[in-house]
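Today's session is about reading a structure prediction critically. Students often jump straight to the picture, but the first step is always the sequence itself: look for stretches that repeat, for charged clusters, for runs of hydrophobic residues. Only then move on to the predicted structure, which in these notes is written as discrete structure tokens rather than atom positions. Here is the chain we will use throughout the hour.
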Amino acid sequence: MIITITGRKVNLRDNFKNLAQKKLSRFDRIFDENATAKVVVTVERNRQTVEITINSNGVIYRAESTDLEMNDALDHVISALGRQIRKNKTRLNKRIHSAALDQYVQEYVNAVEEPEEAYEVVRTKHFPVKPLSPEEAILQMNLLEHQFFMFRNEQSGEINVVYRRKDGSYGLLEPDEEA
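Below is the predicted structure for this chain, in token form.
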């Protein structure tokens, strides 16, 4: 796995980088060598946020945690990624190395089997998609009191999504060619 570690508003020490690489190495037997992991550490006042995004053959795993200590936040993020992988084990068997995944799940410390939930679409909604600017889409989303809003970007002509982030700011999802 190719690991990239970035610090925002902080200079990361080598011992933290080594710890992050060591903890991520437990996922090596699940993902192939082309998988990429991006670790981003952000420090704001007394909060330290660790975000890890793993991209493997088009499947993206992401977890984020904020704590007083970045090592504690790292532990929470690694644990959350492990839970995501365990929870979606049967669906992932088709996409990644199933034998390595079984071994990881069995070895995972204090692994608690969670009942598998079936993904079921309970409602399908059709609506016209108007060309809007991202600012107009955010305004429409707020008027509807939704957490996200899909629209056609008037500049690019592509389908985009604006969404409200946990911190109250807004995000924009744009399609991109798969790498």
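Discussion point for the tutorial: The longest helix spans residues 70-87.
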